[in-house]
Amino acid sequence: MTNDRDRPTLPSDLDRDAREALARLEDRDADDLRAIAAYLEELAEWTESAADDSDERAETDPAASDRSGDAGDEIGDDHEYPKDVPDRATVTVKEIAGTTYYYYQWRDGDRIESKTVQRKNGSW
Fold first, then answer.
1. Which helix (H) or strand (E) holds 24?
2. Is 103 helix (H, G, I), strand (E, B) or coil?
3. At a CB cut-off of 8 Å and minimum separation 6, what does 103 contact?
4. From CA 95, how far away is CA 99, in angstroms rounded?
5. Half-sphere exposure of 12 (CA within 13 A, CB side)
6. Predicted model pTM
C-alpha cells in the first residue's frame, strides 16, 4: 500500500464546486478514475475548440465580436428555451442598443449548433 503522504492533493485554485466534485471521486477505483480523466481531457479539448471557433467567428464577423466577450446577464432557472433549442444549451444574454439578444449554443454529435433570439422592449 502506498503512503498517504504520497496521495495527490486537490488543486487549491479550483472553486468550491469543482473541489467538492473531485473530493467525491477520491474513493473510486483506478479504472473509473482513468475513464473520468480521459473524459475530462476530451471535454477540455472540446471547450478549447469551441472557444477557438467563437474567436474565429468574431474575427470574420464584426457582429460576432459583441457576442464573444463576457457571459452577459444571468438567466434564471425558470428560463424557457425556444422549442427547437435543447434544454442543455448554453445561454448568453446580451443587451445591445436597447435590444436584448439570447444566444443559445449546444453540441449535436460532432457539430456545434447555435440559435439567436432577439427580444425588444420586453416582448419576443
1. helix 16-25
2. strand
3. 67, 91, 92, 93, 94, 114, 115, 116
4. 5
5. 0
6. 0.41
CA pair distance 75, 119, nearest whole angstrom: 14
CA distance 76 to 87: 13
d(CA 119, CA 116): 10
The three-class DSSP label of residue 20 is: helix
Task: Please report how the helices 30-60 and 16-25 are oriented relative to each other, as an axis angle in degrees rounded to 10.
Answer: 150
What is the mean pLDDT of each successive set of 10 residues along the chain, which is 124 residues long?
73 85 88 88 83 60 43 62 86 85 88 82 50
**How far, in Å, CA of 31 to CA of 33, rounded?**
5
Helix (H, G, I), strand (E, B) or coil at 8: coil
Q: Tell me what pLDDT residue 68 has.
A: 39
